Automatic annotation (TrEMBL):
It comes from Lipingzhangella rawalii. The keyword Amino-acid biosynthesis does not apply. Signal peptide: none annotated. CDD domains: HDAC_AcuC_like. This is Acetoin utilization protein AcuC. The lineage of its organism: Bacteria, Bacillati, Actinomycetota, Actinomycetes, Streptosporangiales.
Length: 392
């Protein structure tokens, strides 16, 4: 028997669309859902796509200022920029019915959180979500409403006392961190490319949390060029010890796949195989530390054909406890859909042909290795706050 998985879905989720020249193209979500369907991820009776409602004004106000929500609604009706709220910038162009599309994404993440919190399902996924940069009073980094933060705030409102938020997007999860920076009920962990070389310019190890919540904001700032083995080494050196100590009631993860070597907006060099290995590890940690309660969201990912659909199909399959053999061929009908929708040639296999393995950090720290220095900086800053020896 596989894990039960709910996937809140509505075709309207592809209406979160900043226009044809913008890198956050909704076709990536369409192609992911199509590939997962062709490979049978949704065939099990334990996996269901479910309907849901958009986030309400009150739910959006769990993390966003009412004036900002009004500005989003008005800008989407008039198609006019609103500079104080960063609406109409190159990153966040105004588009028609912007509020409706953004509230729908947030509603799907709330529905995913509800499914897991109420015990309806062990896992739930909103791959159109993961818009982790939006701030309480303005848009930021392609993100209008911060659906991960809204889902976490909703869980706290239901009575959750310990929520872990893990962000593996190549960009720092700055919006979510900011919204819970003073709240020790929420442990935020972000592994990302160093802010010295990538937007948004935050996410250094010394960003620990506000007074009374020191150690509950965790940042691993990885150097450009970090590959599968080094990324996995960093992940295992930091994430499992903290989750095992924190023992969250529920694990919420942002699964941006822009860590891939082909991603046009960033500088890490992971493969789909390394990403798939990370998904296995996260699934295992959800079982070990959160009684299996796992809410998984999408995020960044701008190689629309060769990376995002394969990575997130592996993610959905892992959450369904039906992992896909990486040497599986991509279905012909899906490749035809890719050609029709994008004019590009689709990959023929679910692998990049890599073997993703790592040497544990505990086997020895190399001070000349920039990844090891990044790992040690985070462990030294954060582990003592949780009673964990950073040198063991």
């Amino acid at each position: 028997m596989g894990c039960s998985l709910r996937v809140p879905w509505d075709d309207g989720l592809t209406q979160y669309n900043f226009g044809p020249q913008h890198p956050l193209a909704p076709v990536r979500v369409e192609l992911t859902m199509a590939l997962a369907e062709e490979l049978g991820v949704f065939d099990s009776p334990d996996v269901q796509r479910t309907s849901f409602e958009p986030a309400t004004q009150r739910e959006l106000e769990l993390v966003h200022d009412a004036g900002y929500i009004d500005a989003v609604r008005l800008s989407g009706e008039t198609l006019k920029p609103n500079d104080p709220y960063f609406l109409g910038t190159p990153d966040n162009p105004v588009f028609s019915r912007m509020h409706d599309a953004s509230a729908l994404v947030a509603g799907a993440s709330i529905a995913a959180a509800r499914s897991v919190w109420t015990g309806e399902a062990e896992h739930a996924a909103n791959i159109a979500g993961g818009l982790h940069h939006a701030m309480p009073k303005h848009a930021w980094g392609f993100c209008v409403y911060n659906d991960p933060a809204i889902a976490v705030a909703w869980l706290l409102e239901q009575g959750a006392k310990r929520v872990a938020y893990l962000d593996i997007d190549v960009h720092h999860g700055d919006g979510v961190q900011a919204m819970f920076y003073d709240d020790p009920r929420v442990l935020t962990i972000s592994l990302h490319e160093s802010p010295l070389t990538l937007f948004p310019g935050t996410g250094m190890p010394n960003e620990l949390g506000a007074r009374g919540a020191e150690g509950y904001s965790v940042n691993v700032a990885l150097p450009a060029g970090t590959d599968d083995s080094s990324w996995l080494r960093a992940f295992h050196a930091v994430v499992p010890p903290l989750l095992q100590e924190f023992q969250p009631e529920i694990l919420v993860t942002q699964q941006g796949c822009d860590t891939h070597a082909l991603d046009p907006l960033a500088n890490l060099t992971l493969s789909v195989d390394g990403q798939r290995t990370a998904y296995e590890a996260i699934h295992r940690l959800a079982k070990e530390t959160a009684a299996g309660r796992w809410v998984l969201l999408g995020g960044g990912g701008y190689e629309l054909v060769r990376v995002v659909p394969r990575a997130w199909t592996h993610l959905l399959a892992q959450a369904a406890d039906q992992p896909i053999d990486p040497h599986t061929e991509t279905p012909r009908r899906w490749r035809e859909l890719v050609a029709e929708r994008t004019g590009e040639v689709a990959p023929t296999q679910m692998t990049d042909g890599r073997t993703a393995a790592h040497t544990p950090f505990e086997a020895g720290y190399d001070p000349d290795d920039p990844v090891d220095r990044a790992i040690q900086a985070t462990r030294t800053a954060v582990f003592p706050c949780h009673g964990i020896d950073p040198n063991l």
